[in-house]
Design goal:
The chain has one domain: TIM Barrel (Alpha-Beta Barrel). 45% of the residues lie in helices and 15% in strands. The protein has nine helices and eight strands. The chain binds zinc ion. Zinc ion (ZN) binds next to loops.
Length: 267
């Protein structure tokens, strides 16, 4: 069954993963900018990473018939040095003009610190000024609910970006209701251990319905599974969900949200 993986860090994956994803039905991916597993030592390091996202990965994906798109930002883990982060942010506008760039992301909070919040606000401002979609990373574990609320408040306080142009990712059972009720899109990340399993994601779909909800693998350099989306499709199928419901969650919904950018294409 065809699917879109709207959050996966392909720079960290081998080419065989593209091949296996294509065989499992993947037609498109979107790759948010994120932490490399170590802090970059200069803004130039980010520049090179953005070139990799916008020029190198689309070519690697195309070999397997997968359309690659990306999001540009500085992630919250590297926002503690505010001066450094602002230098990086100054590099971003030129990349927002490139084909296949869908918006600003994944921005958000990690430890909910004051500096992270300052850089989050700077990037909300950037997205608003350039009329961009936003993809949001929410913190893990005990900081998640508080961070999710802080992020939604920051977007609402800015006031220029409509909630339906923002996807709040890594939602879990205790945050998904807050996100959907405020009009945002919600993403469920399927990880082998932390975050959501395919079973938990199927439970959430059964409790909250299918509107403004998607699933992704967030595959990266850590323990993660680039085939998590088709595994969740399989879980839904075993539970008796219709092909229409499964396709809505794993294909139609990402297509609807991402198409608002005017730059998403699967042709
Ligand atoms: Zn991510």
């Amino acid at each position: 069954m065809r699917y879109i993986d709207p959050h996966i860090h392909m720079v960290s994956r081998v080419t065989d993963d593209y091949q296996r994803m294509a065989q499992a039905g993947c037609v498109a991916v979107t790759e948010p900018a994120f932490w490399a597993g170590f802090d970059r030592s200069s803004p130039q390091g980010f520049y090179d990473y953005y070139v990799q996202l916008t020029e190198v990965e689309p070519k690697r994906a195309a070999q397997f018939g997968i359309k690659h798109h990306c999001w540009i930002c500085i992630n919250p883990k590297e926002a503690e040095d505010v001066g450094f982060a602002r230098e990086v942010i100054a590099l971003i506008p030129q990349f927002l003009e490139k084909p296949g760039v869908l918006g600003v992301g994944e921005i958000g909070l990690n430890k909910n610190s004051k500096n992270e919040l300052e850089i989050l606000e700077a990037q909300i401002d950037l997205a608003a000024k350039h009329n961009q979609l936003v993809l949001v990373h929410t913190p893990h574990l005990e900081d998640k609910l508080k961070g999710t609320m802080l992020i939604m408040d920051a977007i609402a306080n800015d006031g220029r970006i409509a909630p339906d142009r923002v996807l709040i990712d890594h939602v879990e059972e205790h945050t998904v209701g807050h996100v959907l009720s405020r009009g945002y899109w919600a993403g469920m990340t399927l990880y082998p251990e932390t975050k959501m399993t395919p079973q938990r994601a199927a439970d959430v779909i059964e409790c909250y319905g299918q509107e403004r909800l998607w699933i992704n693998s967030a595959g990266d350099w850590g323990c993660s599974d680039p085939l998590a989306v088709p595994k969740c499709q399989q879980e839904m199928k075993l539970r008796g969900h219709t092909p229409e419901t499964i396709e809505r969650i794993s294909y139609d919904n990402p297509l609807t949200f991402l198409s608002q950018s005017g730059r998403f294409s699967i042709e």
